[in-house]
Amino acid sequence: MPNQNRNSYFRLPHIFVAAFCISTPAHAQIAVERDDLSDKDRARVQEIVKPTTDFSKAENFEVKQGGAGTSIKKVNRDAFSHFSTNITFKEEETFKLGNALFRKLWVSSPSSTQASDGLGPLFNARACQSCHIKDGRGHPPEGDTDATSMFLRLAKSPTTKLEEQELKDFVRTTFPDPTYGGQLQDLAVPGLDGEGQMKITYENIIENFADGETITLRKPSYEAINLNYGPLDPHTTLSPRVTPQMIGLGLLEAIHESDIVNNADPDDQNNDGISGKYQIIGDGNGNRILARFGWKAEMPTIRQQSAGAFAGDIGISTPDKPNNHGDCTDAQTQCLAMPHGEQARLGVGEAPDEVLSLVTFYSQNLAVPARRNAEDMDVLTGKKHFYDLGCASCHRPKYVTSRNAENKAHQFQLIWPYTDLLLHDMGEGLADGQQVGIANGREWRTPPLWGIGLTKTVNDHTFFLHDGRARNLTEAIVWHGGEAETAKNKFLELDKSARDNLIKFLASL
Cβ atoms within 10 A of the Cβ of 385, count? Predict the structure, then answer.
């Protein structure tokens, strides 16, 4: 990201927020000031979250990047699967019940296991854990036929004035393909064909470092092949998505929304080259609310994210998304004729409220692992490069969560997620051409970096970015463009030692 002095790393210009609110006048529901703090606490918090200028040592509490809930358990393949250490004993039971449901394999209807049927009829996976492997990061198929932790999101660009107006009015965030729905589902219950498969083709691109070294990037292109229900709509775009890691989601949900909106600068009024904006969606009742989860920040809460995943990935209905046939469309009449698994005696949906609530709680309370090697001099040097390059402009290091967070364990915690939860133009190289809400086809939400250094340990791979095209952290950085072009170019100018130290810093998170 572009040159700027350290005092401008975290932009808090209320005038920019006001300007954005004027351009989208009906979302006064979004707070622009912290209403959870006294004046004394507000000053204290502002001092705590200021960017550091001292890279000779680790900052206070930096090692406990998930606050009081940080996991200090032994680092191994289960590093992302521990509960936050500050939840209550009773909540531990709730977490473990949610964990069991997160791992549960759903079956097709009708079935003798009536609390577990309702799969599909079309689906990408049979369990949450199948996509979020060990609660970690998904990966491309890489020559394997298993694409379980990666799929193609389908969305049709608006083709009528009514559809255009629905986007402008925040009534809709996307328009699904009329035949295949919101995502391509390659699996189906017995007696039904899956929708098709994702095909990836890679092209090699060479980038040069200033010191003479080169790096080979792989540029993917995507197709939907072996389609069983006719062609896609000609206006439908394909957006590849790997599943993100699950840690710290409840803490991200507990960040006060004013700390997100006040960091936005949609018109780049301070001329620093960064124009992050916050995602806005409608709540179905005429209100416009802040969203922060998902690759395009299209989901406002973990519960809604969980309900969406149940519906789209597994084909399981919930009280929040009660369609028992999942992503089946009106054009898929055989799919709509399949039996479903809702049991009236158990509640609304194939995963009734209690099930959805338990999975939501589990997802909110997966602990962030403690930092490693935070005092190592190479790591500290790499941290300085991270700041000097401007990376911290979007990957904002730290927050103090809201005192009014729903769960006491998430309240008033100093956390280090390294994200601003805003949408940024990442350049044509990473563009998917798909609009989601106010996010255009070049914009993505800044992903959190905490835990990124444990990807190999937990998931046995190092594939990064929204589609896993980057095979390591260096490739991920070099793919940055758009608002991050200046930072990327500065990274290319670093010598190998400096680049290695920056990677060591990221690996320590």
Answer: 19
